[in-house]
Here is the input.
Amino acid sequence: MKKLLTLLLIALVPAAATSHAASVSREEAITRVESCEAILREFMANPEHAIPRGILQQARALIIVNQFKAGFFFGVKDGYGVVLAKKPDGSWSLPVLISAGEASLGFQIGANAVETVMVITDDETTRLLFNARFNVGVDARAVAGPKAAETERTNRPIVDAPVLLYSKSKGLYAGATVKFGHLSRNDRANFILYSTQYTLPELLYSDWVQPIPEVQPLMQFVQQITR
Here is the structure.
């Protein structure tokens, strides 16, 4: 069902993707969170893409992104995602909606979407999202993260990178430097999703907003895989 939601969203969102400022309905915001949950679950269920347990245990934040072609042929690339931050007590934050654009990993022939998971390994990098725009691979070093099947070949310089990026695009090898594109805040979507005027920093690092039922499955899954 959630995979179906992802496919539906890929089909429906491009028509409205020409502006990050465009409002989304609460139903659309919930669907974005659910599709990001589906992406993470699919990554972890597939040995070719699964993120090693040791990498997840050192995560300070997770970013899940769904990007798509927003036009025919060589149309602009756009998308959305969520970020969750690990708090000092070991619990995980609400999933906070963000916007994503200018993917440079490349769309495979015949594909309309690129699904990506980023493991952020320090708090300073997570806080770059407090700014209007965070350019992954420019504002913080990003490398392709080692996958579960490559654990034996994982070395310290790789896992010490601030951003470990996991994508289903072919040709990325562990340790390869990556320039992903930009991520930006989408406070308006979060206002609608959580019925609050708190913005990304408060949603990530405070307990002022309680999780709504629709986001709890993603929070619980992240808590489970990062233990």
In short: Residues 26-45 form the longest helix (20 residues). Confidence is low (pLDDT under 50) at residues 4-21, 72-76, 105-111, 170-177.
